[in-house]
Amino acid sequence: MDTLQGMRVWVRVIETGSFTAAARSLDLSTAQVSRLVSELEQHLQARLLHRTTRRLALTEAGERYLQRCRQILTQIDEATAEARGAHLTPSGRLRLHSLTGLGLHITPLIARYCETYPQVVIELTLSQRNPDPLEEGQDVVITFARELPDSQLVAQPLGQLYSVVCAAPEYLRRHGVPQRPDDLRQHRCLRLLDPIYPDTWTFRDAEGEHALQPGQTFQVNVAESLAKAAQAGMGVCLLPFFVAAEPLREGKLLRVLPGYRLQKRGIFALYPSRLFLDAKIKTWVDFLRDELPRAFAEDERVLENPAHWAVPDGLLQRE
Predict the structure, then answer these.
(1) Which fold has domain 161-265+300-318?
(2) For 253-299, how does the pLDDT look when each residue is reduced to its tens digit (9 = 90+)?
(3) Where are the coiled-coil regions (predicted)?
(4) 28, 176, 202, 297: which is deepest, by most CB within 10 A?
(5) Is 210 helix (H, G, I), strand (E, B) or coil?
(6) Is CATH 1.10.10.10 the classification given to domain 3-85?
């Protein structure tokens, strides 16, 4: 039997005081109500009601069962309302994962999101790998992956990533400013050890492709550390544009070969495909889709400002 339905019908019988009134309120026949209560008693192997022609009276077992049923039905109704509202009101824990550099970049956006949706608790995990959201329980993974790891995932485009060549002003004063990609062969090139980024720097222009593979000089797996090494004058590096923007703005690095953008790829928010998408996931992805390009635009204005480029005349002026 449907125990839950039996409990609801039985409680309604007690609340209305008769089988007939309960049937009317539930849009059932009196016979259906009587049968459901009898089946519930049979299922429980206990009499819940004393029936007379004039009134209904609870048995001792019925009194205890009534209290339990009301508690259970209240909890079920609350759980149902909460589940139904999950796609309407953002609340609860939102588990996010991002690659380290990009995650640091979006943390201010998370703060702004939380101001708008204070009932959402953010749990952000940063690492140098892309997890499987389904296996590791992540609600949203922000990644540069070109292919979806699972057909059950949705990929929401958030923008485009590219990298730029940078070096410290003092390093360039000592070693000169590269004018062409092939000039980099005469420089100490620092390498980012990350499976997402290829080992080879490939420059494309009207003359074709110019490929350069950094030597075994300095290698690190976090772009922010690579930027610090370049700022210390260790050599020329290739940085994601959103990592390069701040040291360029502060004058700690200069953009080398500003006509080139390398390692272009899309940025995506990956999340499980669901018929009824949780409101906290939907609002976060929508927020990120709107705000991340704006944040990137600020960084790109720095990169495209000639004041932050390394050109011989510019270096002479800085001296």
Answers:
(1) D-Maltodextrin-Binding Protein; domain 2 (3.40.190)
(2) 999 999 999 988 889 998 887 666 788 999 999 999 999 999 899 99
(3) none
(4) 28
(5) strand
(6) yes
